[in-house]
Write a structure and sequence with these properties.
Length: about 130
């Protein structure tokens, strides 16, 4: 089972994302904001980090720099934000994130993107509710 760390300062949205990913069969954990996020990443080892870009203090671009500096192995990073997709693509390219998705994406789009980043060929299930 793939392990996913969600780093988001919006706890309601982060928890919703965590529950959605859990229903998809992933082991998902939410970390509130960027501060201290390296602790669970280094301690527990994750296959994917879903990273909010816009957070107070340390933002997603700061966090991805820390992830790359700490050499946490090959952890995949996906930017996940309310920014428009053009801006997210630019940030992902500029900072070495392997993917990006807007927070307005459907559950099917989220599952498709996560599975693609994790190298899982399985198609999204159609019976999942939002």
């Amino acid at each position: 089972m793939s392990k996913i760390l969600i780093i988001d300062d919006d706890l309601d949205f982060g928890e919703l994302t965590r529950r959605r990913l859990s229903r998809m069969g992933f082991e998902a954990k939410l970390h509130a904001g960027a501060h201290g996020a390296m602790d669970p990443l280094l301690r527990d080892g994750f296959d994917l980090v879903i990273l909010d870009v816009k957070m107070p203090g340390l933002d997603g671009t700061d966090v991805i720099k820390m992830i790359r500096t700490l050499r946490t192995g090959h952890v995949c990073v996906m930017f996940y934000s309310s920014s428009d997709s053009t801006e997210l693509r630019r940030l992902a390219d500029a900072h070495g994130a392997q993917g990006y998705l807007t927070k307005t994406a459907t559950m099917t789009e989220l599952e498709f993107r996560v599975r693609a980043l994790l190298g899982e060929a399985r198609a999204p299930r159609k019976d999942l509710t939002r």
